């Protein structure tokens, strides 16, 4: 009887090991197939494969990270940030891998103009990889947007309105100058509350901010054109 119990127990253990091995093989197969679909631009199919891999192993950081990339490319930004957030919770990953996950999460949050969340993600990335220049740039940009009060879109519309107002004011000022230059200067100082020189400086600063935003938008578009792994353009 003892031998029989031992044999049954061994059989159960062997069955568990065999089952785990099969599941691991299926997980890796799903990830490889997902990578093929992703590299072919079939992001929806890639998402399906990565989710299938996660059904085999819900704790797989490789499948979860690549799922985040597929979601990001499909512009499912909130879901992408959530996927990368789960990766950052895996304390078995190296500092470099965690830094990349936080960086990717920050990108998805920045694209949604969730500035506070993005800033914190970039800081967490830099805590693990202080030499990441791109993370430093994105952190500085997110902080600049927050300082300028850009909390969720509408910035371009506000700038256009400000520009239209400036143009109308300039037209009125030109008409006043034709009538009475001194009166115009006095009204300009009273209404604007600043000298023409300082107004010009403000306009140049606004142009500089706009150019910086244009560069960042271009970078975001380039990020969308990269391969899996927004941080370094590589699959896991």
Write up what this structure looks like.
There is one protein chain. This protein has two domains: 2-152, Tetratricopeptide repeat domain (Serine Threonine Protein Phosphatase 5, Tetratricopeptide repeat), CATH 1.25.40.10; 158-207, no CATH class. The protein is mainly alpha-helical and 236 residues long. Helix 8 runs antiparallel to helix 9 (181-192). The two termini are 49 Å apart. It is built from ten helices and no strands. The protein has helices at 2-39, 43-56, 61-73, 77-88, 95-111, 115-128, 133-147, 155-179, 181-192, 196-224. Residues 153-164, 182-198 and 223-234 have low confidence and may be disordered.
Gist of the model:
The protein is 80% helix and 0% strand. It is an all-alpha fold. The chain has 2 domains: 2-152, Serine Threonine Protein Phosphatase 5, Tetratricopeptide repeat (Alpha Horseshoe); 158-207, no CATH class.
